[in-house]
Amino acid sequence: MAIDKRSIAVAAAIAVFSATAGVYLIADLAGSAKRTSDVANALPADSTAGADAGSPNSVMVSETQLASMQVEPATEQAFPIEKSAVGSIEFNEDMTVQVFTPYQGRIVGLFAKVGDDVKKGQTLFTIDSPDLLQAESTLIAAAGVLQLTTHNLERLRDLYTTRAVSQRDLEQGVSEQQSAEGALRAARDSVRLFGKSDADIDHIIAARAADPTLVVPSPISGRITARNAAPGLYVQPGNPPAPYAVADISTMWMNANVAESDSPAFQVGQDVRVHVAAYPNRVFEGKVSTVGAAVDPATRRVLIRSEISDPQHALRSGMFANFVIRTGDPVRSPAVPYESVVREGDGTITVWITSDRRRFVKRTVTAGLRHDGYVQIVDGLRPGELVATHGALFLSNALATANR
């Protein structure tokens, strides 16, 4: 009987423990459910962005996210067909003159230095020329002979009127006077070859004094690019180096070597736009003036020379330059801004299209040329379709995150 009482007591205790444990388990499950609900309600509204269930390549955005994005319709732009390369600025050799002395002599004076801008006819240097001295001496002598024969002819004419001389003597006097005139003209021309003006020649004849100083002027207007002259240096015509070199810098050359494969696209007369590091915000205009006739066997490149207009004389020889040459007529194509295009990890180019400004769909396109902040879309997009510009990269990252 005692055993039955102990069994009944143990069974009752077990029943009470089981009931209590069940109550605690139910309460714990209810608390867990409540905590989960609280965490979900605490998430921000912006975190609802994710892939649309109907399309694995679409993203829905909230009003807050849309406010930080920009959506624009695709436009149609004209894209010029261009080729670019690098080169260097050089002096226009067609407008560069090596200034030699026309006659031998010793330099006695210098009147210009490298970098000076000179005008046509401005004195560069002077030399002490024995040839000029000889020519002026001959001029003075010829002028004296002409004066003598002229007086003699006048006297013979007076005597002939009184029959004091024969007609033969008169004709002889006329011949001598004419010969003296010819000799004087030849002497004047000889001195004029040295750069003397008629006024200078008349002064030499009147003063009966020869000036051996030969003035060598600049043959063109331009800038002194080289000087090899020094006082006392003996110079001869055509004997290099030239005492001076003068270049007309209103136009400059830009020489570049382009790849052999690109050479068929270049032609004489094509428009050129040049940029140099010294003037980053300035564009220099020009045209292609020479296309090389041969390919360099060492570099497999072809010389392209452009003549660049530089009326303000801003360019310097040796400057590094980037140039763009228009090689064809512009083509019109759909275009989107640079920031609309996303390059994916696999190398494809994508844009984000929307029709309601809430759901954006990723579309793979074929990109082409770039010009003035726009990318040419060769395939995959029509003008007028709404495209995400600012925020395209965010959409791409949101899709990748949702897929993970």
Q: What is the strand and helix layout of this fold?
A:
Blueprint (H helix, E strand, L loop, with lengths): L1 H41 L7 E2 L6 E3 L2 H5 L3 E3 L1 E17 L4 E4 L5 E6 L6 E2 L4 E6 L1 H32 L5 H26 L5 H10 L5 E5 L4 E6 L6 E2 L8 E4 L3 E9 L11 E6 L2 E17 L5 E9 L10 E18 L4 E2 L5 E6 L4 E13 L2 E6 L6 E3 L3 H12 L1
Antiparallel strand pairs: 1-2, 2-20, 3-22, 4-13, 4-17, 5-12, 6-8, 6-11, 7-10, 8-9, 10-12, 13-16, 14-15, 14-17, 15-16, 17-21, 18-19, 19-20, 19-22, 20-21
Describe the overall structure.
With 404 residues, the chain is of the alpha+beta class. It has 4 domains: 1-42; 50-79 and 331-403, Beta Barrel (conserved putative lor/sdh protein from methanococcus maripaludis s2 fold), CATH 2.40.420; 85-92 and 249-329, Efflux pump adaptor protein, beta barrel domain (Elongation Factor Tu (Ef-tu), domain 3, Beta Barrel); 103-246, RNA polymerase II/Efflux pump adaptor protein, barrel-sandwich hybrid domain (OB fold (Dihydrolipoamide Acetyltransferase, E2P), Beta Barrel). Helices cover 31% and strands 37% of the residues. The protein contains 6 helices and 22 strands. The chain has a 6-stranded antiparallel beta barrel. It has a 4-stranded antiparallel beta sheet with strand order 5-12-10-7, with no helix packed on it. Helix 3 runs antiparallel to helix 4. The longest helix has 41 residues, at 2-42. The protein is rod-shaped and about 130 Å long. The protein starts with a helix and ends with a helix. The model is unreliable at 1-5 and 7-54 (pLDDT under 50).
